[in-house]
Amino acid sequence: MRSPATPGNCAGASRIYRQMKLINQETIDGLIKRATESPRRRSNFNLHPVPEDPVQRLLVATKLDSYFRPHQHETKWECAVVLQGAFDVFIFDDDGAITQRIRLGKSRDALGFEIAARTWHGWLPVEEDGVFFEVKQGPYDPDRGTTFASWAPPEGDAAAPAFLARLRSAKVGDRMGG
Fold first, then answer.
1. How far apart are CA 92 and CA 166, in angstroms?
2. Judging by DSSP bridges, how do beta strands 71-73 and 146-148 pair with one another?
3. Which of 13, 43, 68, 71 is positioned for an S-S bond with 30, CB 3.0–4.6 A?
């Protein structure tokens, strides 16, 4: 067995060994602390080394009031598994009507999902201190590849809290747009 390299600092807690990054409860607790302090009420830890990596792998920790604006990825699939807490994942049609609402988490509808490119979707935390592991195709380019729904307010917009409240009680068939 190889001896470990000098432990590194992954989100303030994980140990980095020569060929392995460990994700432990300290990692998750550190991410939740960062999410608590973030204006977006969420925080992520990238396991991939650079934004140009062809496979993006990250942990995302959220607070209950974090708003994920519905969006789609033009050419890339997305896969996620809930590690802690619970989330609702919504699938929308082009006009903002909810076509699916799935509860993810332990003892829920499912633990995770994979969606195809060009699928309108959004996350809704339903328990405090939720964490999920996400995998999607890279490279990451914040200016290309993701289209945000015109029928949903941007993050930080004054209308976002009301949209989030509507989403909490929304049912399949409800139209969130307009």
1. 14
2. antiparallel
3. 13
